[in-house]
Write a structure and sequence with these properties.
Elements: E1 11-12, E2 22-23, E3 48-52, E4 62-67, E5 74-78, E6 87-92, E7 102-107, E8 110-116, H1 120-123, E9 125-134, E10 139-149, E11 157-169, E12 178-180, E13 186-190, E14 212-216, E15 245-248, E16 253-258, E17 265-269, E18 275-281, E19 292-293, E20 296-297, E21 314-317, E22 324-329, E23 342-346, E24 351-358, E25 361-370, E26 375-380, E27 386-390, E28 394-400, E29 419-421, E30 426-427, E31 432-433, E32 446-452, E33 459-460, E34 474-481, E35 500-510, E36 513-521, E37 528-530, E38 536-543, E39 551-558, H2 561-567, H3 580-583, E40 586-588, E41 593-595, H4 596-602, E42 606-607, H5 643-655, H6 709-715, H7 732-744
Amino acid sequence: MWAKKSKCFFTIVLVSAFSLQVLLALEPERIQWNDSKVIGFPDPPPPFEARKLYPSLDIQKPMSVSALPGTRDLLVHVHKGGYGGPGRLLRFSPQHPDGELKEFLVLDDIIYGVAFHPDFEQNGLMYVGCNGRSDALDKVCTRVLQFHIAREPPFDCISESQRTVIEWPSNGHNGGDLVFGNDGMLYISAGDGTSDSDANHAGQDLTTLPGSMLRIDVDQPTTEQAYSVPSDNPFWNIERARQEIWAYGLRNPWRISVDTKTGDLWAGINGQDLWETAQVVRRGENYGWSITEGSQPFQPQRKRGPTPIVPPTIEHPHSEARSLTGGHVYYGKKHPSLRGHYVYGDYSTGMIWAAKHEHGSVTSHFPVARTALQISGFGVDHDGELIVVDYGSGLYELVPTTQKQSNTFPRMLSETGIYDSIADNQIHPGLIPYQVNSPLWSDGAVKERFIGIPGNQTIEFKTANSWDFPDGTVLVKTFSLPLANRSENATDQATAPPLTRVETRLMTRQNDEWHGYSYQWNAAQTDAVLVDASGHDQTFEVVASEFNHGLTKQTWHYPSRSECMVCHSRASNFVLGLSVQQTNLTFTDDEQMVAQLEHFKQLGLFHDGGTEDKRSTGSKFTFPSPVEDLPKLTNPKDTSQTLENRVRSYLHANCANCHVKEGGGNSKITLAINRPLDKAGIVNTVPAHDSFGIPGAKLIKPSDPQGSILLQRMKRRGRGQMPPLGTSVVDADAVSMITQWINQMPAEISTTSPTCPAP
């Protein structure tokens, strides 16, 4: 794989399509790559982009933002992770952005939403939606609390005025957002309460509050409770129905808001397996959960509620959105094109859209911005201008985009500057090949990997998470399968069957943001064409294995642009395979052994965070410790390593981009290898989502693979599969390995839930 060279320079040749293809001198010289044509954007950019607000304020993990009436101050609701408190409301003045964040309210509960009474100027009443342990019900509950705000400066919250208005049992998909309608009534979102595919069948059950939108009158309390039910609520005449219910069939309405002009009540609803929705919520309507997910069947055999199912106002497949969080109807002055539109976004993809709803239908719908934000919600400031809430880094505003569509963006892979000769599969010698310890499972595809860094620019080396790359970087990964009807130009390989290139994916960093693109190879293997932004599937006839040359049909998924950014998320620092843990390995051939990290260092690829000239060759860079002492994953197929390390490495590589603190997955587990097993939240833990009808199921149930949902999800394809993206074929070797691991696992491992957010 590696060989000595007599000359003092480093070159790349393709000795074999699926070996490292590197010849190494004792003092390798880095060949510069200045030929990248992956510049600009192939699609018309959305009209806006996100720009940081109040950059001097250290706002950590914001969930929502509200304008404090009677002042010019803003309240930002923050939560540092987990499924409980503390929840904190922090106050600051936008007029003094260099000031400090002041605590306004601290609760033991997790806070979900804040609303101010329509007569706040007179009565000073604030309402907070939250979730935590209820002393009265002796259960975890979602509740609405009432507080008085002082009517004299500095208008502090009087915490001892706390009063419970309403509460109900809920331990997952809690809803808990709230808003006053134009009718003066308080609307409250209530998710299905279980996080387990509506395990209690609450979505269609009018006798229980979860899975509903509630409407109550806080101005007319009764002798029994701190509210009354308006007489025009829809289910007065349904036996045993909870009269507080305004509409039902909702999975997890995360953010709700009211169109101040029309009075329409909007809800952004987190989907489950395939669909995300936004809904104009109307009196008495049934939105289908869990009979349907959006407009599609989910559990059609379940008992329906008494009214027909109404389709979603807006629906996105998971190729476009993964965790839709809702938004606001905009009536500000800065952006006339958005006036009257519901502006909403997605936590996992960072996409923002706008939709205009008129006369019962959507008359306008378009993308507003493509961001790398983890959008937990939107707010409106005192002037009616939108604030985008990014759970990862703070508050943002929308500004006209500086991006331009490129007429020269390469539509063919041969035009990218990555290849010297694509017909001969000869990569430009300035691109640097690399390998990883624990490859992601990609339906049996074999992968080639290269790093393209412009000129003499360098990578910021970090021991935790992935590295930081300069603008202009292009990361290349080519996938190949043993196709039955291979072209004569397909890659030769010593082992049968030979391989055919099907896809090359590029990740490119431009203007401090990462973007993903996919190219589909033609049958002749002479070039590859840029895949449309929406992605698509193609079915191939594949040789089953090198030992059994039988044929099987296999669907290959070319991802959409949005799907690329679901996995390549902020939580994973956008780049998955280029980290110390993945690249700390040694290649061996007959002549020499080469440590990959040392080789990168010799090429001058690294700088530390304190290097003044980050474009330098990195010649002064030193590792924080000897390479052999730096962390590394284990190759799951290396049976000389412990079973524990093989399994944890596999889960880290394939799952931890989502199942990690701040990840896009909304379960409580974390699968990063540096988390001790007893603190990973997986052993003897009740599933937060579907248990697929398995009695006594746990995420990992020691000595019981059948009862272990993590394994069962790995074995599934379609609804409930894991990983949810990029694979249509079960990794049989991994299933066998993890089955063995579970069978050997001691039963006494305890459960300690980690902390990670869950929109």
